[in-house]
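Team,

Forwarding the record for the chain on the shared tracking sheet. I've put the sequence and predicted structure together so nobody has to dig through attachments.
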Amino acid sequence: MKLTFTTFIAAILVLFASVAVAQQSEKELRKQIKEKAIKDARKEAKALGKEKWFTQPGSLPLEKQIEKAWMKQYETDDMGYPKYYVGIGNALAGTQSAAKLQASTIAKQDLAGRISSSIASIVETNLSTTQLTADEAATVQETISASTEVISQKLARVITLTELYRKNKKNYECNLRIAYSAELAKQAAQDVIKQSLAEKSNITREKLDKLMNF
């Protein structure tokens, strides 16, 4: 019994040690990511400053906005995948508000395109195990390719990372960088693609669920 109890205690100690090491490693990793993000942000902010970009009064300073953007781009989930999709939009207009509106539309389209591309890669992998016919597989691929605009319209709670302006003769140029939760993005894409496929094809619910399992 003593040997068993001793072994049990030893196992518990090893477990605690492993957890402590894992926590320390995660903490160290976060620190490294933050340090790299700050370093990259300072470098980019310096370059943007030389190009005469500026921020809106009352918003975060340019360097802090860039730092926030890099931090979001470096964040990963428990599986090591990026936690956010990032989209960029650039536009030129007669006023700052008009330039911002156009840049926002372009950034959302860019974001939706990145989401569609990522989803297409995942679905491509699932196609091999879903046992679709050649026509069904073609319909799926066409639907995903055409889903970017609809996904763009479905995006809610978009996070603005950077909102930068500069004068271009008599016009204003706006550069927006936005982010969107990868988890919410996948859900939005699933809803859009599933609905579209249900309307356009005769693919069974079982196959659809298997295909869109991500």
